[in-house]
Structures are given as C-alpha cells and as structure tokens.
Specification:
2 helices
Length: 169
C-alpha cells in the first residue's frame, strides 16, 4: 500500500514537474517495539520511553517503551500512526517562516501488507510434511511461530537536486 503524503507539484503543471529527475532518499522503516537490537536495528535515540527520553535498549525493559511492547502484534496500530500522525507531522511547518519543507518535493510512504510473507516463511509456501513426506495428522504443534519481517515499510523523500537534503533550512 502506498501513500503520497506530500507532493509539491500539486496545483502546478504536474506533467512538467513529473518529468524532472529528483534526488531520492530511500529509508527503511521499522516500528518501535521491544525487539532486541541484535534482531532489528534502529537509529540511536529513535526509541522513546513514556517521558520522551531515548531508550538505549528497547528489550531491556519492554514496559518502558512508549509505543509498543510486543514485537509481533499491533501492526495496524503502527500503520495508522505512521500514516495519520507521523506523515502529517513530517510535512507540517511548525513556526511562521519555517522553511524546512521548502526543498522537499515529495514524500511517499509504502506500507507493508500485514498479511504478507515474513522473513522466515517466504513464498512459495511449502506443504507442512512430516519426515515421511506425509501431511501431519494435526496442525497443532506444526505451525511455525510468526516472526515479523525486519522492515515494516519504506519512505521516499524526494528533492529537486543533489545536496538539497543537506542544506540548512
């Protein structure tokens, strides 16, 4: 699922704007949960506790995580936050005269489909067979644990020319 959260060309001649090459920053996104950093890395200072202080290790005290404690649930909650809160905050100029969005041409979010494959059970899916090649008589005890993918989506930040993302805004 893809959302175009911000497009500077809206209202302009979109055909002309669309033909110009853009400099793109591609960023993998992973929701904030208690997965150990050895399994799913995150940028330093990006995980916060309930008071807004950075968490050095989200798995050390999962209850301290301000967003989510269980790594294998609440995909919908994270997706809704990313789409409806984070994306909107990202493109909002907070102060009069704020020029932070001046060089950003477009911001896209591509969300992983919740029912999609995981890193551990990828298509083509295999028939669950026992050592003799026969179906198990029951599925109980033979369904692999769900382990979510390392990334939950990607974001594209598009700029008109190289270096625009580095200039002081």
């Amino acid at each position: 699922m893809s959302d175009i959260v911000f497009d500077a060309a809206q209202g302009e001649d979109s055909a002309a704007a669309a033909s110009e090459a853009l400099t793109v920053i591609f960023s993998f996104l992973s929701r904030a949960d208690s997965t150990p950093l050895s399994q799913r890395r995150r940028g330093e200072g990006f995980m916060l506790d309930h008071e807004g202080h950075p968490l050095a290790d989200p798995s050390a005290d999962p209850a301290a995580n301000a967003f989510e404690t269980n790594p294998n649930i609440n995909f919908e909650k994270w997706g809704e936050y990313w789409r409806k809160v984070h994306g909107q905050r990202f493109i909002f100029a907070e102060q009069p005269g704020d020029k932070s969005l001046e060089r950003l041409q477009r911001y896209d979010q591509i969300h992983r489909v919740a029912s999609g494959p995981t890193n551990f059970v990828q298509p083509p899916y295999r028939v669950p067979l026992d050592d003799r090649g026969a179906l198990f008589p029951t599925v109980i005890g033979h369904i692999p644990d769900y382990l979510r993918p390392r990334w939950d989506g990607v974001a594209y930040l598009n700029f008109a020319k190289p270096g625009d993302q580095n200039e002081r805004m």
